[in-house]
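Support case: iron/sulfur cluster complex. Customer-provided input:
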Amino acid sequence: MIGVSTKNAASGDAISNKNQSAKDRKSTERVVHVRVLRQDGPGQASYWERHEIPYELNMNVISILQRIAQKSCTQDGRPVPPVAWDCNCLEEVCGSCTMVVNGRTRMACTSLVDALLVEDAQEIELRPMSKFPVVRDLVVDRRRVFHALKRVQAWIPIDGSFDQGPGPRISPDEQQDAYPLSTCMSCGCCLEACPQYTKIEIVKRPEETVEELGIRREAAFHREFMGAHAISQAMLFNNHPTGRMNAEERLSSLTSQGGIQMCGNAQNCVAVCPKSIPLTRSIARAGRAATVWAIKKLFDR
Amino acid sequence: MAASTEQSQGSSFLGKHQFLVYRLFSLSGFIPVGAFVVVHLATNASILAGPEAFQSRVDMIHGLGPLLPIVEWLFIFLPMIFHASIGFVIISGGLPNVGSYPYVGNVRYTLQRATGMIAFAFILWHIIQLHWMGAALGGGAFDPHRASSSAATAIAPMLVGILYAIGIVSVVFHFSNGLWTLGITWGLWTSSAAMQRASWACLVIGLTLGTLGLGALVAMRAVDVEQAKSIEERMEQMHRDNSVEKTFLPTSKQGA
Ligand code: SF4
Ligand code: SF4
Ligand code: FES
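Agent response - structure generated as follows:
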């Protein structure tokens, strides 16, 4: 295996420069070098920090962060507060641990160190997502992800708590079609990689109340691109026999400002989605539904 | 929260009608702008059959007489201006990231924007250089009665030839790749298999148009200007002889 500094020196001249410095550190135990882009709070300047932690078998990025927290000092021995991060399920279902690892957006919990060192043997680079405001270090404010789900009504409304009897039957084919879409965990990878999705960071004005700030933020979210995940969820519910009852409302959202028309068909979303959700299929289906709906609206008016 | 379908307050005109405007943008790239490009490249390719064939195509088009500028503005210039303006709005809103995500789709996304801008610059220059409207700016070199010889003279310099080749390739890529994204936007191809097939089809269209365009460029630059002039003079003479009955044929003042 490559990727451990003690072994690197043996791997030839081609990459000898960097290997040399690794060798100079004379580490006898296998260490992993980590570079983290830190930020102390919202709106503050970010800075890079290097950490060095002992290699362990089957590590993932979360365990790296745990070791960094344990040590709480940088590579050159300076004590620092532990790096903050988000995680929850540790099995790629909650979607909370998204970060930019070695330049690519992905889930920290399923980013295995051995695989990362194959990508880059020298070091592992951790950055917060760039499309969301940083709260602290690797923690970002992802409320826009959920706002988009509200926009497209990514749910099925129920009108009461009484038993409404069994719902309509769904054919196995439809189930097969819908299941992948239902695995979306709102991680936001699709948004981070999307060239059409740009960051919105609303800074509180001194004279503004928290409520006014919230209204201003929602308005901004409403104007900008909702993102591939929301389009896909809208299609999930629009193709569900009960969800279909609100299909018009969802189509109306999908074609409002910041809707599907903002997609530029770069198809990064589908390439980076950790759940391999066929997002571009959803986007094209939404496009088709919008086409039909727009024409119908034109003639039914 | 109000109904989630509700529009936010204070959005711009473009914001309120974003869906419609972007769909019209998408459509305009195909019809009429794209359709015109195809016709234009095909017309130019007639030079491959010699100056006579090209001249007769040009005569046909200019046979529209006073209607020609109306057709030009309605079906070519105005839709192009619309497509280009919205295109710049779209480009300014995006944040290309091929460096971090070097996927084929993303490369195409970035190239679509790059070729769009090259195509815009090229078309602007091309119009100024050859169209009569460009005369005021020192261009307007194309003479409809001396189609091949005037065009060949204008694009004879090596640098012009190279820039034309870049322009043509950009326009053709932008059109054929745009055709593919148009199919996704409007929902013509939705599954990834269908998108893949459509992608091949668009590639074939692109290669065909590219061959036509570059072929015409090479053939036009290879035209023997003196020989072409004599052919064109003969053809114009023939038309004059006929124009007593056929008044719709081009009058010579248009060439000025
Ligand atoms: S669609 Fe995929 S990448 Fe996007 S939020 Fe859902 S799971 Fe994450
Ligand atoms: S296909 Fe659309 S939503 Fe997906 S990454 Fe590209 S622009 Fe973004
Ligand atoms: S911790 Fe839940 S997805 Fe990584």
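The longest strand of chain A covers residues 31-39.

Case will auto-close in a few days if no follow-up is received.
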